[in-house]
Write a structure and sequence with these properties.
alpha/beta, Enolase-like, domain 1, five-stranded antiparallel β-sheet, 475 residues, binds flavin-adenine dinucleotide, FAD/NAD(P)-binding domain
């Protein structure tokens, strides 16, 4: 067997892996990256990018329905054109896939479309798309094989012909009725989208609230939002079995009640893609759910084998995987970076969106902080009135001991952008009073941060308004 020796081998071209492969190839390393079938990874092909393209169609639809209120007549009302809607989504995806197809070879890496499995320490056998076999050994190997939709262990679920977050993107019609199993962010986003497109959507969530990682009041507001948009939100609806009955899919719930729909989207979580990797052959330890076990430097149990992104148990977001890339780049070039203590924000793209960073009120109290809570209805923000979108509430949790911001949950238009300002304030250690007193452009949604923290009162704090060193810049 001929073994090709390289500096870096990346198995799976997700966000961390492809970024590292391009970066190191440009730096002159000999790099091979093996990708099974998605040029650019999950995010671009079947997750963030196609779903957010569809969310934009949803938003345009919802905005246009209210266009009359801001003096724009749309006489027959907006209609969904499924072909154009798919073309928009597929155009965005194809553009990004094309760009990656160009960028990979331009970086100087050897990009291989194929499936890799370990055959020895730091060595994989690749079965390429066109049926060839290659064996590659590297000084350093990075596993970035991601996660895939999980089917729950429910009687009948495999035979019933259910949809996943990937197959629903290929759906050629808007179903009259859609059941969504799972009230995490993927379930909520698809439920909101299809309700806007005209499906009767029933969202079945086994637990007592949607979005289990959120504080109960925030999750309850998202549930009210979805209900107001026509989604039948059923909490405590634990599925026990699934079956097909003619053209319908039927979910039997624990209380014996049946929920029926033309289609069933299963959105109950994701599993790591490691089953066919033969990780043990390379000495790479997996946990009991199949995730690669890594330390805070993203080192696996095998020397010079690293893992990143979803498969390494990082928070399941593209930006977390991208940060893993930066940690790996540092560590592979002699530095010392860790993943611990990082602040990972996220946005749930219902309409309007819920953006989060830091601790929830529940987490802060559980961790023993003496918290103060600020709340602001979005209707109080002038910009919200001008854009005719006053839905939502902003909430912040601060530490009374040192006035630092512990976290925010911002439900409202533009929150996914505004949350970055809060994140930077947290990273910079600003007090809530400094954010309250910052001069922010009017009228913007960001200005709502002044108003949000104003609700905590008006006592001055040290250095109010102007962090050290900024006075000159403000003259
Ligand atoms: C519906 C949905 C919406 C989402 N929306 C967002 C969002 O808005 N924002 C956000 O930040 N995150 C979002 N996510 C999460 C985000 O998509 C993931 O966290 C991210 O894509 C994980 O990237 P990764 O680097 O772990 O690897 P991935 O991008 O998953 O890449 C892994 C790659 O490895 C390949 N592979 C697997 N096994 C092998 C093998 N043996 N040989 C070769 N190649 C292999 C796979 O084909 C895949 O391309 C969403 C997820 C879903 C499901």
């Amino acid at each position: 067997m001929d073994v090709e020796e390289v500096d870096l081998l990346v198995v799976g071209g997700g966000k961390a892996g492809k970024s590292l492969a391009m970066d190191r190839a440009k730096a002159g390393w000999d790099v091979v990256m093996v990708e099974r079938d998605k040029i650019g990874g999950t995010c671009i092909n079947v997750a963030c990018i196609p779903t957010k393209s569809l969310v934009e169609s949803t938003r345009t639809l919802l905005t246009t329905r209210e266009a009359g209120d801001v003096g724009v007549r749309v006489p027959r009302g907006p209609e969904v054109d499924l072909d154009r809607l798919r073309a928009h989504k597929e155009g965005v995806v194809a553009g990004m896939v094309d760009a990656h197809s160009r960028m990979f070879p331009e970086s100087g890496m050897d990009f291989v479309l194929g499936t890799a499995r370990f055959v020895a320490p730091r060595t994989v056998e690749v079965t390429t798309r066109d049926g060839d076999r290659r064996t590659v050994r590297a000084r350093d190997v990075v596993v970035n094989t991601g996660t895939a939709p999980a089917l729950p262990d429910l009687p009948g679920v495999t035979e019933a012909g259910v949809l996943t977050s990937e197959s629903i993107l290929r759906l050629a019609r808007v179903p009259d009725s859609l059941l969504v199993l799972g009230g995490g962010y993927v379930g909520c986003e698809f439920a909101a989208m299809f309700a806007a497109f005209g499906s009767r959507v029933t969202l079945l969530q086994g637990g007592p609230q949607l979005l289990p990682r959120e504080a109960p009041d925030v999750a309850a507001e998202v549930a009210r939002l979805l209900t107001g948009q026509g989604v039948d939100v059923r909490l405590g609806a634990r599925a026990e079995a699934v079956r097909r009955d003619g053209r319908e899919v039927v979910v039997t719930l624990a209380d014996g009640i049946e929920a029926r729909g033309d289609d069933l989207l299963v959105a109950t979580g994701r599993v790591p893609v490691t089953a066919e990797l033969a990780a043990d052959v390379a000495g790479v330890r997996l946990d009991d759910r199949g995730f690669v076990v890594v330390d805070d430097h993203l080192r696996t149990s095998a020397e010079h084998v690293w893992a990143a992104g979803d498969v390494a148990g990082s928070p399941q977001f593209t930006h977390a995987s991208w940060h893993d890339f930066r940690v790996l780049r540092t560590n592979l070039t002699g530095g010392d970076a860790v993943t611990t203590g990082r602040l990972v924000p996220y946005t749930v793209f219902v309409t309007p969106e819920l953006a989060r960073v830091g601790l929830t009120e529940t987490q802060a109290r559980e961790q023993g902080y003496d918290v103060a809570v600020a709340r602001l209805p979005v209707s109080a923000i002038p910009r919200a009135k001008t854009v005719h979108d006053t839905v939502g509430t902003w909430k912040a949790v601060v530490d009374r001991a040192n006035d630092r911001i512990l976290g925010v949950a911002l439900l409202g238009r533009g929150s996914g952008e505004v949350v970055t300002a809060v994140q930077l304030a947290m990273l910079g250690g600003l007090t809530w009073q400094q954010v309250r007193d910052a001069v922010i452009t009017h009228p913007t949604m960001g200005e709502g941060l002044n108003l949000l923290f104003d609700t905590l009162g008006w006592e001055e704090s040290e250095g109010v308004g102007v962090p050290d060193g900024w006075a000159g810049a403000m003259a």
